[in-house]
Amino acid sequence: MGYRAAGRRGFNDLRKEGVGAYNRGMDTLPVVAVLAGGRSSRMGADKALLTVGGVCVLERVATAALEVSARVMVVGRERPAAWPERLDVTFVRDEEAEGAMAERSAGPLVGLITALRQAGGPMLLLACDLPLVTSGLLRVLIASHRAENLATLAATPEGPEPLCAIYTPGLLPTLEGMLRENRRALRALVRAPGVATFPVPVEYERELLNVNTPADLAEAERRLRG
């Protein structure tokens, strides 16, 4: 696919080797940011607050995030009234970003910049609509990241997943340039200098299901049931 893998082996070799290929590094990070500011236009409802297996989608993602980091922030929305106290996360509005960003429409790029500025160091970024994601996948993603990389994006044979990725503040100039030029497609980051990809082991690929439509939501329920 032309992606730069986080290690030296090929994309398919690393996928098939599985988690053993990524068990040598750290498997936690100081900060995890969950982007939850989308409009959910294709779903027709606020997808972050929908349920899969009887549990709110955003709660599922936050639970997995808290298993790999003591500091989790949800970017792009206020704290829901019914948010469980056991999930100790911080809610950050996109509008807290600096300067002209506050006047721009919300989106993943704005959310990512907001999160990186708040984090102040390397962080794991997740979309709020990944109800099947587990700490197992997050740990091998974190372990795959190399200090010399500005970012490490999870990737499957379908392409990179920029909303399941490690980002560092060193990428901020690139991201801010994209915002100024109104280039908001985060998948384009795979071509940026210093950005690597992490070939997701086959056993974890099912977890990268984004629930953008009612059909996706039904598929998530089906996969959860096994």
Features:
6 helices; 19% strand; alpha/beta; two-stranded antiparallel sheet; 226 residues; globular; 7-stranded mixed sheet
Q: What's this, in brief?
A:
This protein has about 230 residues and is α/β, with parallel strands linked by helices. Helices cover about 25% and strands about 20% of the residues. The chain is globular and about 40 Å long.
Task: Describe what you observe in this structure.
The protein is α/β, with parallel strands linked by helices and 226 residues long. Helices cover 27% and strands 19% of the residues. The strands form 2 sheets. It has a 7-stranded mixed β-sheet with strand order 5-4-1-6-8-7-9, sandwiched between helices. β7 and β8 form a beta hairpin. Mean pLDDT is 84; it is low at 7-11, 13-24 and 96-104.
